[in-house]
Amino acid sequence: MSWVVWLGLAVALGAVEVATVDFVFVMLAGGSLAGAVTAAVGAPPPVQVVVAAAVAMLLLGLVRPVIKRRFTVRNPEPMGAAAHLGREALVVESVTAHGGQVKLVGELWSARAEDPSAHFPPGTTVVVVSVDGATVIVAGSAA
């Protein structure tokens, strides 16, 4: 096999990697580049194939896991309503099952108590258990 064929294969695999972004095809492209180098120094085709396969397997087994860990977001920060779940809020206006107001992260929010019989007077610390539109549903603080 000619080194040009190996190089063409590496370029094609690189193009597929751009579409998938899974770091598999780039490792295979690395193996193809090793096959191209092996062909360029005059090794016979069976040796080229063995070198290309061995390098690709090494890259897949050793390099890919490191790259995947580097580019994987482990615990993304919650956004929107989910960011408020579990946060403490300060009751500004008495909160019952029918309504009220709390200060949450420096902003005033409409609030309702999760428990229909609960009543939280101003100054009480509560915990956000869910968000219903622009209203937080709160429960008594564990502290």
What's a concise summary of this model?
With 143 residues, the chain is of the alpha+beta class. The protein contains three helices and five strands. The chain folds into two domains: 69 residues, no CATH class; 61 residues, Nucleic acid-binding proteins (OB fold (Dihydrolipoamide Acetyltransferase, E2P), Beta Barrel), CATH 2.40.50.
Q: Which class best fits the helix and strand makeup?
A: alpha+beta
Overall pLDDT level: 91
What general outline do the C-alpha atoms trace? rod-shaped
User: In which order are the strands of the major sheet placed?
Assistant: 1-2-3-5-4
The tally of domains stands at: 2
Largest sheet: 5 strands, mixed, barrel
Q: Which blocks of ≥5 consecutive residues have pLDDT under 50? A: none
What is the number of E strands? 5
Radius of gyration, Cα only, in angstroms? 29 Å
How much helix is in the residues? Answer: 40-55%
**Proportion of strand residues:** 15-25%
The total of helices stands at 3
Order of helices and strands: HHHEEEEE
* Distance N to C terminus: 72 Å
Account of the protein in words:
It is a single chain. The protein is of the alpha+beta class. It has helices at residues 3-20, 25-40, 45-71; strands at 88-93, 101-104, 107-113, 125-132, 135-140. Strands 1-2-3-5-4 form a five-stranded mixed β-barrel. Helix 2 packs antiparallel against helix 3 (45-71). The longest helix has 27 residues, at 45-71. The radius of gyration is 29 Å and the shape is rod-shaped.
